[in-house]
Amino acid sequence: MTSPLRIGSRSFESRLLVGTGKYKNLEETRDAIIASGAEIVTVALRRTNIGQNSDEPNLLDFISPDKWTILPNTAGCFSAEDAVRTCMLARELLDGHNLVKLEVLGEKKTLYPNMTQTISAAKTLIEDGFEVMVYCSDDPIFCKELDDMGCVSVMPLASPIGSGLGIVNPHSISIILENSTKPIIVDAGVGTASDASIAMELGCDGVLMNTAIAKAAKPILMAEAMKDAVISGRKAFLAGRMQKTLFGNASSPIQGLIE
Amino acid sequence: MSAIVFKLNGELTQKPKELNLNELANELNLFRKKFAIEMNGEIIPKSSHSATLIKDGDVIEIVHAVGGG
């Protein structure tokens, strides 16, 4: 029924991409990811603990790169230089794995991306052989530029990272979809299942989320809800929705009424 | 051989004698874990860890994957 999601040289059945941050523990992280059905899982890179807890469990012991496609992000980077450096380290960490999620933030309060730095980093990374999935603003011009330069997926925000506000500008997302030649994945801002469905109903190729699942009262149940929401939103998009009208149209015949 | 002092993940670290990156990783219980090492701003591939000796004043970063979105 649904075609696979093709990102660069890779192909996926699931159109839900999930993060691994903010969970209570690594067991919950793993269980939520399994419940979500996601195949692409984002991780962050940080300094290894060299102090007393140096033997604490490692995320990749729970989320095996053999089972999931690990998508290292550049979260926390505010310059192209730092983002490129992080991607290089990620490639070394993951034995040459070249798929990365580029995000270069502009400021801490909104976590909106710095698009000048994002474009600069994307250029460097693409030239160095990375397959770049890029978190960006929901500006159709920037999205087109990132598409044209060879990013394998363009990932406009629905609303600020971790805000749960949903898609604040669906019209902008529609224009981005109209212009795109690469998969468009809504990244950041999804709060609940209907937000994910709306993204898919608009025609997005996928949805990436973290906090909506991790900070739900029951993360595993929310992961299941998000899986269903993405699938049903995709089906609704493929099915083609009915036209909206201002007035009512009876579903039952108006002839043959009993008098 | 004399003691060396270098910066490891932002902290000054002292070792009684020179050691290579592989020995350092083992001391840190990183054996069989996934990590990456950057030394003085350059990534040192795993295949070169044993051959890379830490010198006095080196700046080393060791990173691993953590939860993130």
List the helices and strands and how they pair.
The complex is a heterodimer of chains A (259) and B (69).
Chain A: E1 5-7, E2 10-12, E3 16-18, H1 26-36, E4 40-47, H2 59-62, E5 69-72, H3 80-93, E6 99-102, H4 115-127, E7 131-136, H5 140-149, E8 153-156, H6 170-179, E9 185-187, H7 193-202, E10 206-209, H8 211-214, H9 219-239
Parallel strand pairs in A: 3-4, 3-10, 4-5, 6-7, 7-8, 9-10
Antiparallel strand pairs in A: 1-2
Helix pairs in contact in A: 1-9, 3-4, 4-5, 5-6, 7-9
Chain B: E1 4-8, E2 11-15, H1 21-27, E3 36-39, E4 42-44, E5 59-67
Parallel strand pairs in B: 1-5
Antiparallel strand pairs in B: 1-2, 3-4, 3-5
Summarize the structure.
Chain A has 259 residues and is α/β, with parallel strands linked by helices. Chain A has helices at residues 26-36, 59-62, 80-93, 115-127, 140-149, 170-179, 193-202, 211-214, 219-239; strands at 5-7, 10-12, 16-18, 40-47, 69-72, 99-102, 131-136, 153-156, 185-187, 206-209. In chain A, 47% of the residues are buried.
Would you write up a description of this structure?
The complex is a heterodimer of chains A (259) and B (69). Chain A is of the alpha/beta class. Chain A has 9 helices and 10 strands. A 5-stranded parallel beta sheet of chain A has the order 5-4-3-10-9. In chain A, helix 7 (193-202) packs parallel to helix 9. Chain B is built from 1 helix and 5 strands. Chain B has a 5-stranded mixed beta sheet, with no helix packed on it. The longest helix of chain B is centred in the middle third of the chain and has 7 residues, at 21-27. The radius of gyration of chain B is 12 Å and the shape is globular. The model of chain B has no long low-confidence stretch (mean pLDDT 93). Chains A and B meet through strand 4, helix 2 and helix 3 of A and strand 3 and strand 5 of B.
